[in-house]
UniProtKB/TrEMBL annotation, chains A, B:
A Pfam family recorded for this sequence: TOBE_2
Protein known as: ABC transporter ATP-binding protein
One example GO MF annotation: ABC-type maltose transporter activity
Ranges of residues in domain ABC transporter: 4-234
Family named by the database record: Belongs to the ABC transporter superfamily.
Organism: Allosphingosinicella ginsenosidimutans
UniProtKB/TrEMBL annotation, chain C:
Transmembrane annotation, as ranges: 12-38, 74-93, 105-125, 153-176, 211-228, 261-284
Bilayer topology annotation: Multi-pass membrane protein
Domain of life of the organism encoding this protein: Bacteria
Record SUPFAM superfamilies: MetI-like
Biological processes per GO annotation: transmembrane transport
Family assignment from sequence similarity: Belongs to the binding-protein-dependent transport system permease family.
Entry keywords, A to Z: Cell membrane, Membrane, Transmembrane, Transmembrane helix, Transport
Principal place of residence: membrane
Full protein name: Sugar ABC transporter permease
Every ABC transmembrane type-1 domain range: 68-280
Alphabetical list of Pfam families matching this protein: BPD_transp_1
Location in the cell: Cell membrane
UniProtKB/TrEMBL annotation, chain D:
TM region(s), chain numbering: 49-72, 84-101, 121-138, 159-181, 219-240
Pfam family, one: BPD_transp_1
Family membership: Belongs to the binding-protein-dependent transport system permease family.
SUPFAM superfamilies linked: MetI-like
Membrane protein topology class: Multi-pass membrane protein
The ABC transmembrane type-1 domain, residue ranges: 49-240
GO cellular component: plasma membrane
Biological process (GO), any one: transmembrane transport
Name of this protein: Carbohydrate ABC transporter permease
Organism domain of life: Bacteria
Location of the protein in the cell: Cell membrane
Amino acid sequence: MTSLELLNIRKSYGGTRVLDDVSLEMDDCEFVAFLGPSGSGKSTLLRIIAGLETADAGEVRLAGRRIDQLPPGERNVAMVFQSYALYPHMTVRENMAFGLRNARVPKDEIDARIAQAAEVLEIKDQLDKKPAQMSGGQRQRVAIGRAIVKQPGLFLLDEPLSNLDAALRTRTRVELAQLRRRVAAAVIMVTHDQAEAMTLADRIVVMNERRIQQVGTPMEIYAHPANAFVARFVGSPAMTLAPATLVDSDGGHARVKLSDGAEVGTRIARKALPPGALRLGLRPEAVSVVAPGAGTTDAEVQLVERLGDRTLVYAKLADGQDITASDQGNSRVAIGQKVGLSIDGGAAHLFGPDDVGHHAEPAT
Amino acid sequence: MTSLELLNIRKSYGGTRVLDDVSLEMDDCEFVAFLGPSGSGKSTLLRIIAGLETADAGEVRLAGRRIDQLPPGERNVAMVFQSYALYPHMTVRENMAFGLRNARVPKDEIDARIAQAAEVLEIKDQLDKKPAQMSGGQRQRVAIGRAIVKQPGLFLLDEPLSNLDAALRTRTRVELAQLRRRVAAAVIMVTHDQAEAMTLADRIVVMNERRIQQVGTPMEIYAHPANAFVARFVGSPAMTLAPATLVDSDGGHARVKLSDGAEVGTRIARKALPPGALRLGLRPEAVSVVAPGAGTTDAEVQLVERLGDRTLVYAKLADGQDITASDQGNSRVAIGQKVGLSIDGGAAHLFGPDDVGHHAEPAT
Amino acid sequence: MNAGGRARYAGFAFVGPFLLLYLVILIYPLLLGIGLSFDHADLFGARRWAGIDNYARLLADPVFLRSIVNTIKLALLIVPPLTLIALLLALALNRATRAAAIFRGIFFSSSVLSVTIVTLIWRFILTPDAGLLAYGATALGLAPAPFLSDPSLVIPAVAITTIWWSLGFPTMLFLAGLQQINPDIYEAAALDRAGKWTTFRRITLPSLRRTLLLVVMLQTAAQLQLFGQVQLLTGGGPGGASRTMVLFIYEAAFGRWELGYASAAAELLFVLVLAVTLLQYWLVTRREPER
Amino acid sequence: MVTPLIWTLLLSFKSNAELMRSSAAAFSGPYTLENYHAILVGSQIGRWLLNSLIVSLGTTAGVLILSSLAGYGFARLDFPFRRTLFVLVLLGLAIPEQAVILPRHQFFAVLHLHNSYPGLILPGLVAPFAVFFMTQYFRAIPVELDEAAMLDGASRLTLFWKVLLPLTLPAQATLGVFTFLGSWNDYWWPLISATTSDRFTLTVGLASAQMNYAQTSGLGFLMAQAVFASIPILIVYIVFQKQIVRAMAGAAMR
Amino acid sequence: APRDTRVEIVVQRFFGECGAVYGHSTDVAAADTECGILTTLINRFQAENPDIRVKVNVVAWPGYPQLSAQIAAGDPPDLVTMHQSTISDYQGRGLLEPMDGLLAEAGIQPAQFTDAARAGVVKAGRIYGMPWDTIGRLWHINTRLMAQAGLMDGDRPILPHSPAELLAQARQFRARTGKPYLIQAQVNAPDYHVANLYTWLIAQNAVIFPDARHVRLNTPEAREIVTLFRTLNAEGLTTRNQDFPAATASFTNGDGGIFPTGTWMIGPYDKEATTSGHPLYRAYVVRPFPRLWGHEAAFVDGHAWVVPGAERSPAERRAIARLLHFLAAHEFEWTRTGQLPSFRAVLAMPRFRALPHRADIAQMAATGAQLPDYVQRQSAIQGLIGEELEAAVTGAKPVDRALADAERRVDELLAQIM
Ligand SMILES: Nc1ncnc2c1ncn2[C@@H]1O[C@H](COP(=O)(O)OP(=O)(O)OP(=O)(O)O)[C@@H](O)[C@H]1O
Ligand SMILES: Nc1ncnc2c1ncn2[C@@H]1O[C@H](COP(=O)(O)OP(=O)(O)OP(=O)(O)O)[C@@H](O)[C@H]1O
Ligand SMILES: [Mg+2]
Ligand SMILES: [Mg+2]
């Protein structure tokens, strides 16, 4: 069932357009991430849904009801702020109860809901502390708890993890994932961390420059980026985009030549490609390190990032083109070394002059 | 050549011991990361080196000279604070010049050094801005620039990346790596993010509970964790530690049985193991998802984390033991599903009752 | 920030009560006063149109002109040292020790006294034949300085009294300002080889810029209205050497019953205070980046 | 710095007759409680104390309420002429008391407000600095808190009352102490507004209790009065001193 | 409780509060100090007249800002203490009730007043107050030091009869005792020099205020008087930097010969003079200002009871009259403070004459002179003249210029009176 519906939302600040005709539909219980660079309008869109900002045009509907005219408190949405925005003078319990009291929920019911949320979030013994007495991770949970107890139709999370340190972030991410399976509600999470979005969301809404660039499951977005922006933005480290020229086609599939002369055969349909300059998109896992001369082309190693289970190699082709490759965890590659790169053309992408992405045809 | 030398450093706050007999040697131009959980004393140790705290006992030597009696400004070290600690009322240029002026460096020289640092850090056109007018990433670079211009013998960085958002963090990490190759000085970086430490450091000093747990290159620490703490702390997601009992040995190598009955043959020397309860250490990449029944054992999927290029699967064995496995990027595994797990015993670790780690013998 | 702009006028409900009182109790009398300043008027309601007579007379009245000079001199002699001492005190007391807390209390307690008592105390300190300073001076074999009867010493004497009396509040403001400064930047400065003085001048002082502005503005406005100390301590003497504008206004109103004249002087004082305050604000903020 | 204070204290315990010869007598005994006795037994001191408390507390409460409301309004709400009105309030900082006190007196006479508590309290309620201070303080509170409360369904009043106001407690304490202090020591307005001695505040009452040449013949008594009148403020200060410094840190200079 | 139906009158006075000692006392004879005597007097009146409720409003000295405020607010008290020199201000503006009727009702005839007192309350031909005393300045003299200086003739101090003699005696005093001849409160006390100037101008029959709008100060007579004090100051024959409390203490401690100050100090100093061991013990007399020019004269002022204009019922008037009557009948008690009586009868009383030093100063009731009744703003004017005189005496300004400035400023002030 459709839960949230955005219709042609438009918003400007002063003379500056911030959102341009944004429309979106979201299912009940769906977890959607708004992903995009800073300033792309993610928070603004979220705040329009929450009622903290007013759209200049467009409609917001929740469970079929138009809510954009309602005050924030009556929209049946709950929000977790980036800064948590816990009430510093209230205990955890009071923080959670505040919204319910305002909604005149009976006392018993309030207690029950708080107890339950505290159970889920494992903060039962923190209920009488004040936020200042808690660690960052605990505060985060209280902020989530404050949203949960309201049993809203829609959770809105604005960069809920960005204030946490790396260790806590990974843990909290898992917690968020588990949480959403326990509470039956739709969730929108704003983030500019693609790993976060990929991990948590059912669907990702990639935003850039006032518009939605692509909407899709994490895998769709990773595997079939709609355009070069999405391709670069999603995936870490970023996809290499190397200028390429069409050479030939084998079996209807495009074959391209990189600027250093190396040729790569793709599984992308030749005829779908527009005329004009192309860029070849290569994720690091499509480029592996081999002995010099043994691969598609050779390169010089610029930087080695050892991540334990695998190693990322930042290299330069003969003509200066940067390219990121991957190697095993116990790679012996060193900076300055010459290596061979084996490019898996079957996993490559092509982007035309209009920036639209073209992807390998499914293996038959 | 030995650059920094710490000898039996001890420190208490009030009655609480924070550092216990810490000793360390560090080479010229080496990049060392202090890695450890919150409260393990990393910052304290760093601040003792900088002269911002005084050790209760022990010596600090830099380039052979004892420095623990010198005031901070005269120790020839530079520090980058977690909060940057930029002087808010000074422009970027003034921020960088401040320390040099105090050291009576000639005006020309100051200008030259600032120009050079600005060049390296790509903040040339920001020099006349004030910190408040800059983004987090830019401020970070200014903080680094302020350290660079002093041309110190040792850089101290206290969680230099923890204030950055995820996108910026990855980029800055690469920048830091490049930077240290351009400035010839030893670097100590405090962090509790193991990815950061692994990526950047020549050697990692793992700290916990007032003491150094292990010192080694990232690969040593990843591959041969000295104890269970290091094993769990380094590597993301954390290594699974499953109780195991010694069954038998094949060819002098230990073979163990997990609590669900599955048996795993390791390449760990049998005779090195102490008597008593063992734990089997498995990194996610040592456990791969296969069809049910086709692997070492079976498990039920609890959570799936899709990272694009690979997928992490959090699962439970029949007896309730948690285990983390990995699968390909396009894995179809879903929550609740039964899967088989194939355990690569050759990559497993064993920890004895004394917590000491035992690792596979090198393949011959 | 509000939904739908329904609450465009809600703000008035919050600022309204204050604004109403403000208009009725401050602005309306101010306007009445401005009206009065164009009248010949006495305390009991007699009124006669005077045009700019009062102002013309004021600007030709050497006593008034001297009171302006005295007032400005006093402000100049009080505000900078007061600010400086308060700043130093705050620096000294900006620590969490018990002693510091006790001293904060002591320095605050002089502000607690009413002006009557303050002047009384200082009269006894300053009087050359009987004051504490006199005892001290005599003990050192010096002739005690006639602080209250020498025209050139009376203004410094009043200034000292005032500084002693007013120290509490600015000290508090500075203490607060100091606590705002991120302690990390002091450590950064230590690593940057900044000595005590450099740290103060280049780190502390600039960080206190806004506090400094606030203190100076508030104190200037207050000291330009200095009154009780001179009325009680010197009566404006000797020979008018310490008559301030407000004392002049007081004398004109209550001594001579020339309400119109007093009002005109009060309006000129208002203009002076306003001008000086705005000037300070402009001087300090003009080079600040937009925030 | 402290000497004058100690001296005041010592003087207050000396007999007036002895002090008439020399105020230096303060530094040696004998000390006496006669001055405090005289204050306490003096006919109307209880009444004046009560009046001062009513006026000072009334003023303080009023200032806190008005400036909190206005501070919130100026800091958080958008309404027509907001900036202009705020500047207008700031102009009030420059208005000398003398420019308004007499016209205000006449105007209060017309309203028959003199010699009454409202007449004594009302002028103190108009405190532009308080509004400025509270506005700054409210500005320092993150807007997210407002938004969180709005999403929690709080009305503007609930938001103000339950969420923001408690956060300004340190500021209220500071402002309260200074307002109380100013009101307690105010002399001119109560002098000309309170016309009968049963409406005098402590400052006016104590002044009236002085003989013409009190400095000569009643020095000890005067000092005892000073000490006596300061006690309530010192108590208030000691109780709130922690809050005060914290508060100013929050608002003073953002 | 039944409502208080008694007629109420509000008495407003300065002189301080002394409820601690005299709160409920009606024993006037046992009372001491201005405050004590007045408090017990009113207590006694209240006790003797239970049908009247006397509400006493004690105000801070001098009480005029408050009185003005009360009048401006339309709520003045019924009976108020006022300096006689101030009556013109309020009378000139029509704010006081003429009291001829009230006094008649109280059984008091103006002829009972001393000349000095009557001059203080009669304005424009009508009586605007019941005089309560006459206060003037006297020379308080330390006879021990005068003896040491060779300026005693038996138990009588030798006082000068001309300016030259004054200087000679002062120099002699200085030489013999090493102390200043005069103790003068010159700091923050503008009226001090004015009293000197007025006294000796009046002694020469100089017209100070020729009419309501002018003063005449820049005259040879005035210059001579001021020059004398300038010389005293310049030669160190007087204390220089003292204010009133310092000068008072100075005289108490025997640090100078003569302290010209008010009648009100007789009581405290006499107490010193009768306490053995104190510097003034048996070494204190007072005299009116000496005759340096012209004839014997004293510039005096006095307190009076006045009635601000307001609507009052006949009952209230009767109550006021009864209080006035009572006060008049007990004026002797008040003179124990050191002030001179305003009723001839008291002046003649043996009890009064028997009070210490009173016989020496009683003549002031006859020689005492006040300014013409049309002179307003005396207090402001004295402040203003005093400021200029202080400048002249201390040498900050030439005498001529100071006097000319004073004249100009006073004329300007008078011109503005509405
Ligand atoms: N109140 C405002 N007034 C003016 N411009 C604003 C306001 N709020 C946001 N903007 C502008 O709108 C654009 C979108 O802002 P928004 O906060 O929605 O971005 P975002 O995608 O959430 O970015 P981030 O990742 O940095 O939070 C930005 O350019 C921002 O500068
Ligand atoms: N000034 C201090 N007074 C008392 N205890 C302190 C002080 N500074 C640090 N500690 C304590 O010393 C221990 C080590 O602190 P330290 O800051 O070195 O930890 P850390 O490893 O840097 O932790 P984090 O990762 O949280 O920064 C902690 O338990 C901390 O509470
Ligand atoms: Mg945002
Ligand atoms: Mg730390």
